[in-house]
Recover the amino acids of this structure.
C-alpha cells in the first residue's frame, strides 16, 4: 500500500485526473458481481480504477506498476461468472472502457481490428451491413478483451469453434510495459512461435490485450430454431448424440433441464410458458433449402429418441421467441433467489458419450445436498453448466 500513493500521482499524469477513480461505487463495480461464483473477501478490492485510451497509455501505466510493484487486473465487460477480475492483492483495475472502437473492417480479407472493450454484439452490429458476422457468442455484454483472456466459448461453438479459432493476432502490453504484436494479419504464416494462442486463455496473467485482429465470416443466408422436450435427460442427450452421429450440420445444440425450464417459467423472462421437462434447443444456418433439410432431419431423429414435443420457428420473431429461454437462462436462475443471494456456477466437460450419465449423477448429488440448480449444456461438445442461487458464501479453506 505504501507504493500506491506515488503511483496514483503517476497515473493522473498519464491519463488525466478524470480517468483515475477511487470512488467507492467505481471500486465496488470492479470488485465483483452478483452473478460470479467467486466472491472476494471484504479487503479484496482495487485501490483505484484507471481508464486508459490507447496502447501507449497502457504501456506507460504498466511501467509505473512494474517499477512500484503494484498488482494489476484488466477489466472490460465485467461479465465473468468465475471471478476473473477479483482483486486478491488490492492493486489497480485497468478498465478498457475508453478503448471501445472497431478500428478496421477488411471485408475482402474477412478480418477486423478491434479494441478490447468492443462487445461481440456491438461488433456484429458493425458487420451486419457488410453481410458478415463474428461467431463466438458468450454471455450478453461480454467484450473482446475478456473473451480473449478466457478463451471463451458460446452456443455457436458446436459449428464454429471457440475464441481460439477466431483470433489472428494480438497487440499485448507485457507486465513491464513492453508492447508486442503476436503476429501479422496474413493468415498463412508459420514463422516463429504461436504466441497468439499462448495469450488466449491466459486470463491477463501474461499481459493486457489492447488490440485484436479477428477473423469474421459470411452471415448465413437463412437461419432457424427448433425446440423439443423429452421425458428424461438421457433421452435428450441421446437425441443430441444422434444428431451429431448422423452428421447433421446444425449450428448449435443446447440442453436445458427440467429445473431450468421451471426457473424460466417462474421468472417470466420470456413471452411464453414452457414444458417443464428436459429440452433441446437447436440452431440451423445455411441456405434456405439446407436449413429446411436440417430441421427435417432433426425432427425425425428427435421422434426416434422419444421427444414429447417439437417446434420449428416459422419467422424471425418466432426464432427469437424460441431461443429466448436459452438466452435468459442465467437471469432466470438469479430471479429464483433473494436479492442478497449469489449464483454458484459449475462448468463441466466430459466425452460426449458420458454426458447423460454425468448430468444424471449431478442432479442426484444436488438433490441429496438439498440444492436446486438449473442445468444448461452445450451438449454438442459434452459441456454443461449447473447454476443455483445460494446464500452469500465464503471461500473454502483448503489449506
Amino acid at each position: 500500500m505504501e507504493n500506491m500513493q506515488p503511483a496514483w500521482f503517476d497515473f493522473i499524469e498519464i491519463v488525466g485526473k478524470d480517468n483515475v477513480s477511487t470512488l467507492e461505487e467505481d471500486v465496488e463495480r470492479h470488485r465483483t458481481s452478483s452473478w460470479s461464483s467467486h466472491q472476494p473477501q471484504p479487503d479484496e478490492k482495487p485501490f483505484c480504477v484507471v481508464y486508459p485510451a490507447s496502447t501507449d497509455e497502457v504501456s506507460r501505466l504498466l511501467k509505473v506498476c512494474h517499477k512500484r510493484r503494484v498488482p494489476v487486473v484488466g477489466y472490460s465487460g465485467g461479465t465473468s461468472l468465475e471471478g476473473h477480475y477479483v482483486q486478491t492483492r488490492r492493486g489497480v483495475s485497468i478498465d478498457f472502457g475508453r478503448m471501445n472502437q472497431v478500428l478496421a473492417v477488411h471485408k475482402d480479407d474477412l478480418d477486423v481490428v478491434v479494441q478490447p472493450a468492443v462487445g461481440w454484439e456491438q461488433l456484429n452490429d458493425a458487420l451486419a451491413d457488410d453481410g458478415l458476422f463474428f461467431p463466438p457468442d458468450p454471455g450478453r455484454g461480454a467484450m473482446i478483451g475478456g473473451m480473449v483472456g478466457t478463451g471463451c466459448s458460446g452456443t455457436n461453438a458446436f459449428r464454429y469453434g471457440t475464441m481460439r479459432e477466431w483470433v489472428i493476432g494480438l497487440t499485448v502490453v507485457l507486465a513491464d510495459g513492453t508492447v508486442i504484436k503476436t503476429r501479422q494479419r496474413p493468415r498463412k504464416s508459420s514463422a516463429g512461435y504461436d504466441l497468439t494462442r499462448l495469450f488466449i486463455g491466459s486470463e491477463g496473467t501474461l499481459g493486457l490485450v489492447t488490440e485484436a485482429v479477428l477473423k469474421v465470416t459470411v452471415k448465413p443466408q437463412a437461419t432457424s430454431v427448433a425446440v423439443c422436450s423429452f421425458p428424461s435427460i438421457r433421452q435428450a442427450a441421446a437425441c443430441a448424440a444422434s444428431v451429431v452421429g448422423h452428421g447433421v450440420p446444425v449450428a448449435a445444440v443446447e440442453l436445458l433441464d427440467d429445473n431450468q425450464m421451471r426457473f424460466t417459467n417462474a421468472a417470466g423472462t420470456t413471452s411464453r410458458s414452457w414444458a417443464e421437462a428436459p429440452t433441446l434447443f437447436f440452431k440451423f444456418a445455411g441456405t434456405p433449402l439446407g436449413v429446411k433439410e436440417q430441421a427435417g432431419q432433426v425432427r425425425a431423429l428427435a421422434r426416434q429418441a422419444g421427444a414429447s414435443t417439437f417446434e420449428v420457428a416459422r419467422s424471425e420473431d418466432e426464432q427469437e421467441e424460441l431461443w429466448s429461454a436459452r438466452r435468459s437462462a442465467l437471469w432466470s436462475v438469479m430471479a429464483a433467489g433473494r436479492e442478497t443471494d449469489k449464483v454458484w456456477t459449475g462448468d463441466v466437460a466430459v466425452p460426449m458419450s458420458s454426458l447423460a450419465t454425468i448430468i444424471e449423477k449431478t442432479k442426484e448429488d444436488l438433490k441429496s445436498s438439498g440444492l436446486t440448480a438449473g442445468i444448461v449444456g452445450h451438449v454438442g461438445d459434452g459441456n454443461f453448466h449447473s447454476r443455483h442461487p445460494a446464500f452469500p458464501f465464503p471461500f473454502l479453506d483448503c489449506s
Notes: The two ends are 26 Å apart (CA to CA). The chain has three domains: 4-95, 102-218, 222-390. The CA atoms of residues 225 and 323 lie 7 Å apart. The longest strand covers residues 208-215.
